[in-house]
Amino acid sequence: MKDFLKYTRDALCYLFAWLVICVMLTSLISGKTTLEFSFLWKLLAFCIWGAVTFTFCFLTKRMQRRGFLFSLTCFYVLFIPVEVIFFYVTGIFEEVGNAAIWTIFFVIIAALYLASALIDFFIMRKRAKDYTKRLEEYRIAR
Fold first, then answer.
1. How far from 135 is each of 8, 36, 74, 123, 130, CA to CA, in Å?
2. CA-CA distance, 11 to 22, in Å (whole number)?
3. What digits encode the pLDDT tens for the residues 35-79?
4. What sign results for the dihedral spanned by CA atoms 78, 81, 83, 89?
5. How far separated are the first and last CA of the chain, in Å rounded?
6. Taking the complete model, does pTM exceed 0.85, yes or no?
7. How far apart are alpha carbons 10 and 76 in whole angstroms?
8. Spatial separation of the C-alpha atoms in residues 129 and 42, rounded to whole Å
9. What is the percent of the chain with per-residue pLDDT over 90, rounded to a whole number?
């Protein structure tokens, strides 16, 4: 539990700081010079949920034993609905029926999922085979 809280705290700090910087830069570029205090509270709540779900899905031993794709899928299932709600609450998705916004959103989500799956499949599996080969060589040499 202590490690879970430590990882969640660290993830929350990084996530909140990064999103506040991104929001500030976006606001300045778009000509908006102020941020509402209520928006920052909503952003903090969103970051808390993101940090907790990320820590649970990727950094707990129970989830790690099931594999990266299982953890990634669980993260998407837990996080994406909250992300959509956050976008509505903060006004990012102002129009419910805007097909272009929804298409862009889901294409980005699907592309990130596919990229993560491909990275896991090609790079990480290759690395695992290399480590297994080296362990076998060490065992034989011993």
1. 34, 56, 32, 18, 9
2. 16
3. 888 889 999 999 999 999 999 999 888 888 998 899 999 999 999
4. negative
5. 39
6. no
7. 20
8. 44
9. 37
